[in-house]
Structures are given as C-alpha cells and as structure tokens.
From TrEMBL:
Residues 1-20 are annotated as: Disordered. Keywords: ATP-binding, Cell membrane, Membrane, Nucleotide-binding, Sugar transport, Translocase, Transport. This is Sugar ABC transporter ATP-binding protein. Gene3D superfamilies: P-loop containing nucleotide triphosphate hydrolases (3.40.50.300). The keyword Transmembrane does not apply. Residues 1-17 have a biased composition (Low complexity). It comes from the Bacteria. The keyword NAD does not apply. GO terms for molecular function: ATP binding; ATP hydrolysis activity. Residues 25-264, 268-521 form the ABC transporter domain. SMART domains: AAA.
Length: 522
C-alpha cells in the first residue's frame, strides 16, 4: 500500500521535537502477535516528562495492544521497556503501577468491582497497597475516595454501586482512580468517548496540571478536537508499525491522511425532510422522571434527529423507554399513529424498533457471558426467531449477514466466525451497528454510536445510516455536539430529562468536524 506524501514535520522516529534530556519512557522493538494476527510489529517510542503524545491509528492499528503491554495486561513477544533509563520487566498491572505507569482503558466494562460502591472502588488501590490506615473505616474510605474524586471534580454519589452508574460515570470513576496514583507515565485510551464537552474540558484541565507537574502522557483518541487541544506531538501507528511521527505544531490533516490512507472528506448531508413525510414517532406529554417537565417530539420518516446534551441529561433513558427497557414516568409514545408501549426489548424488536445501546458489553453483546460469541452470532442474536423458526437456517443467515456487515462497515476481522474478544474496540462497535443494519425497521435508536471508531470509519458508518434512513425514522443520541452536527438532519437539545423543542433546529446543510456552533442555522 502506498502512503500519501510525508508531511514536513514527519520523521521516521518518534523522537520528540524538543529533544533534550533522557526520556521517562523508552520503548524499543515492541512486538506482539495474537496467533496469525500481528498486532504490533516492532514499535519504538520515546516519551519525555511533561509532554502529551497523541497516539493515532485507525481501528485495529495496535494502539490498545501497546497500552495493554505497558500496563502489564498483555505480555509482548519482543522488545524492551525502560523507565528513567532502567529496564523494566512488566508482567502484572501491579508491576506497571510500581514502575509509575497507570492506564485508563478503552474497555472499562470490567474495570473496577461492580458490587462495591464508588468510594470503595476509588480507595481500592490505596487499601490494597497498604498505603491506607490499617483500619479502613467508612470514614477513611470516604476521605481517600473524596480526595480522588475532587481531583477531577467528580460529581457522582460516592455511595452508589459502581454497577448502577452509567458508562460515562464509570469512565469518570476510572479516570479519577488512575490519577490518584500520581503516575510518572499516564496512558489514556479514548478517555472522552462517552463524555460531554464540559466533562471532557474538566479532564483536559486536570491533564494540563499533570503536564505541568512533569507527568508524561500518552493520549489515544479518535476525536481530533481533543488532540488539537492537548497534544504536543503525534505518533501514527499503521498495521502495528510506526508510520510517522509529527512534531509540534502537528499537521493533523497529514496525520489523518497517513492514518486512514486517504483524505478525510467533507460530509454532505441530505436535503431536509419535508413536512409531507409521515410522522413515524410522536411523543406526547412525555416525562422521563416524575419531577421533570413534559415534552413533545415528532420524528418523520427519512429524518435523522440527533439528540444531544450532557451526560445524565436523559438520552439513554429516552432510548431505553422506546425500546421497552422501562416505561416513561408519564405521557405517551405513538408509532405510525398507534400507541407504542413495548413490554420488553423482544416486543420492541418484533415491532420494528431497534436500539444500539451506549454500553456495548452490557446491552449489545448479549449473551455477554458467552466469552467466545462470534461476530455472526452477535449480529444474528436478536433475529434468531425471525431467521430460524425451526432452528435450522439461522447459522447460514447469520454468517451471510455478518459477511455482508464485514464488507459494508469495513470490520477488520478474518471471518464472520471470529470471536468479538479478538476485535479491536472500534471494530466491536461496528459490529453493534451492523447488527441493526441486517433487517429493516421502523424506528432506529443509536446511543453513542461513534465510540472508539476512527474518523474514516465514522464516515462509513454515517453513510450506512443515511443509506437506509429513507425507510424509517432515526434517533441518534450523542454527547458530542460535533458528532451531532455530522449525523443529524435536525438537532434537539436535552437537559435535565427534558427535550427542548424550542432549541430544535435544522443542522447545517453541510458540515465537517471543524463546524462551529455559528454554522448552525436557527
Ligand atoms: N485478544 C485478542 N485476540 C486476537 N486478536 C486480537 C486480540 N486483541 C487485539 N487483537 C487484534 O490485534 C490488532 C490490534 O488491535 P488493537 O486493539 O491494539 O487496535 P487499536 O489500534 O487499539 O484499535 P481501536 O482504535 O479500534 O481500539 C487487531 O487486528 C485486533 O483484532
């Protein structure tokens, strides 16, 4: 494959522009293969105190594997790791932490202890390392947890069970827990994937502070806006190898071109849906919580409405109610003019309403307890009855649907039988979305569909959503305003459980990731 011309700031190594001094972290020749898949093919990297390195790469390029090696979750096949010039052999997360390396992982589903409280999770590392007072009373745990929570302004009930928090809240808890260790090297893998702009900005302020304190940070994100705001330089991985290094000021257009292999196109949106199109979904006097104000909403056939607002505003609550996970506190939904009160997700699916949930491990990869669930099995699971009334033909249909999805969504996998656990995070997310592409529906609900998908893949996903949009109504729930602008024909704000119809406006006729709020026509 040929690469685009190199940017002037690109060099063959990852040496920092500022040069000077011994790196805090030095990697040489890090390699890792999973069976026949080469995840990393010999990566070199130098990281200095007080700098933030953007680690970029398309889905499956090897970024998470590198992070997992550095924090002791995966053992490399070859290569050396040095901290402050000393060779480090990392075989466990405790070993990494002792060497001053901590990470916040992209897949946080299994991070933390779900049945413990937020406070207990936050204090866990100190309690286990013997750095806490001998008798850990509730008050001691709350104090230790309170210190960690305060560092990032975490506004979560410390007595809540971790399992009861939303994905975004658990992401914030994971970040607060990692930062509590005052690391030398901090690795962040998609830390803002489910955060709103305000929460992300709070995190960035904390990272600015850590940079001033000399912490070396590796930051992985598919949100280029985050990288522009934070990173001092960038390293692009491609197929497990360093494809280029960019010094400050980073030329992100060139870095993205190098990453996805072609220019990132400006997106063109479809013509607005006219008032003649029939209303598919009508919400009338709906309350998401008893104390909230009621609101109305109408979504027409062919329309893609992006619902955006901060974490906890009620987006997942609205999506779940329409999918039969729980009822509205009050009010009515109508689908194609008839009352819509699904008793459970199976009824919703049978009635032509599909949801891709925010937390893929909890809501989409079921049965999540099947560790080797394949791409085909995951895509076919909701349609088992429809596809195989006598239990015979499902496997063939599943495989055909999964093979089509692998092509349409560019899922990086060897076959439809690959287990989900062998896919990179972004590719797992594409499977979640591909599932709901396999059958026609009346109402499609997508909750944070772009988590962890690279910028090239996001184009493909938006194209796939648009391709079928004309036959159904679509609601996309996103924290990120730029993503709302990219995907929505119309944007509706949600705040404190209330959709604000008076703030509903058509999205701009065309937009790119750099679209500013002033681009929105009201
Ligand atoms: N446990 C595993 N078993 C088999 N293959 C794996 C496993 N984990 C990762 N891989 C493969 O290794 C390659 C690199 O994956 P990795 O998760 O490091 O990519 P990534 O750059 O972090 O992608 P993303 O942006 O989607 O998170 C991919 O081809 C992936 O399918």
């Amino acid at each position: 494959m040929t690469h685009p011309p190199a940017a002037s700031s690109r060099s063959a190594s990852a040496a920092p522009a500022s040069g000077g001094g011994r790196p805090v972290l030095r990697l040489r020749g890090i390699a890792k293969a999973y069976g026949p898949t080469r995840a990393l093919g010999g990566v070199d990297l130098d990281l200095h105190a007080g700098e933030i390195l953007a680690l970029m790469g398309a889905n499956g390029a090897g970024k998470s594997t590198l992070v997992k090696i550095l924090c002791g979750l995966v053992e490399p096949d070859a290569g050396t790791i040095e901290i402050d010039g000393r060779r480090l052999s990392i075989s466990t997360p405790d070993g990494a932490r002792a060497g001053g390396i901590v990470a916040v992982h992209q897949s946080i589903a299994d991070v933390g202890v779900p049945n413990l409280t937020v406070a207990e999770n936050l204090a866990l590392d100190q309690l286990c390392s013997g750095r806490a007072p001998l008798v850990a009373t509730r008050a001691v745990i709350r104090r230790l947890a309170g210190e960690r929570a305060a560092r990032i302004g975490l506004a979560v009930d410390l007595d809540a069970r971790l399992a009861d928090l939303s994905l975004a809240e658990r992401q914030l808890v994971a970040i607060a827990r990692a930062l509590g260790d005052k690391p030398r090297v901090l690795l962040l893998d998609e830390p803002t994937a489910s955060l709103s702009a305000a929460e992300a900005e709070r995190l960035f302020a904390v990272l600015d502070g850590l940079r001033r304190d000399g912490v070396a940070i590796v930051y992985i994100s598919h949100r280029t806006g985050d990288l522009r705001r934070l990173a001092d330089r960038a390293l692009v991985l491609r197929d497990g190898r360093v494809a280029g290094a960019f010094a400050r000021p980073v030329d992100y257009d060139a870095a993205l071109r190098l990453m996805v292999g072609h220019a990132v196109l400006q997106r063109r949106r479809a013509a607005p849906v006219g008032a003649a199109a029939p209303v598919v979904l009508a919400l009338k006097g709906v309350r998401l919580a008893r104390s909230a104000e009621p609101f109305d909403l109408a979504v027409r056939r062919g329309e893609i409405v992006a619902v955006t607002g901060p974490v906890g505003a009620g987006k997942s609550s609205l999506a779940g109610a329409l999918f039969g996970l729980w009822p509205f506190a009050s009010g009515e939904a109508e689908l194609d003019g008839a009352p819509w009160r699904p008793a459970n997700p199976a009824h919703a699916i049978a009635g032509g309403v599909f949801l891709a949930g925010e937390d893929r491990w909890r809501t989409s990869f079921f049965p999540a307890s099947v560790p080797f669930a394949s791409i085909a099995g995951t895509i076919g699971f909701p349609f088992l009855k429809r596809w195989s009334p006598f239990g015979l033909v499902a496997e063939r249909r599943e495989r055909a649907a999964a093979t089509a999805a692998i092509g349409a969504f560019g899922i990086k996998a060897r076959s439809a039988r690959d287990p989900l656990a062998a896919l990179s995070g972004g590719n797992q997310q594409k499977v979640v979305l591909a599932r709901w592409h396999a059958e026609p529906c009346r109402l499609l609900l997508l909750d944070e569909p772009f988590q962890g998908v690279d910028i090239g893949a996001r184009d493909d996903i938006i194209a796939a959503i648009r391709q079928r949009a004309g036959t159904r109504a679509t609601l996309v729930f996103v924290n990120d305003a730029e993503e709302a602008l990219e995907v929505g024909d119309r944007i509706v704000a949600i705040e404190d459980g209330v959709l604000r119809p008076d703030t509903a406006f058509p999205a701009a006729a065309s937009s790119s990731r750099s679209a500013a709020p002033s681009d929105i026509r009201s």
